[in-house]
Write the structure tokens for this entry.
Amino acid sequence: MTHDFDSWRNFSDSNPDEDMVKTISMHIRIPRVIVLLLFERLPKKDVKFTRHNVFERDHNTCQYCGKVLTRDLLNLDHIFPRDRGGQTTWENIVCSCIPCNTRKGNRLPQEAGMVLIRKPKRPKWRPFINISVSNHPHDSWKHFLDIAYWNVELGD
């Protein structure tokens, strides 16, 4: 059975439970399942071009040798060097370890005999809500969790 807020409040008055939220003016049962009937899509938002986000995109991994390092041992490298017209953009900046950056110097990777692990691109992260369910969800959840598992939209 589904309820709106007023009918749930009335139901809570007539059927008290040990799991109740108590306010000054009312007591409301804590629902076991909440069904979302309307969802306003979150607007797409560009990821800010920051050092932190470049490190996140590249997973703190040198994009030349593949070593995963702490951020104090990594720096940012312009694939196409700035003094040769390279821009400071998502597509031209990668994480590199200091030895690889020094080896590459003011050259293109292929001129230095180096290869990028993956081509850099602008990330398309989106905020998400992480809802975790305990290992022992309430029995009344099973039907909804089974439906959600099979019917949730994947990917974009």
Observations:
- Residues 1-38 form one domain.
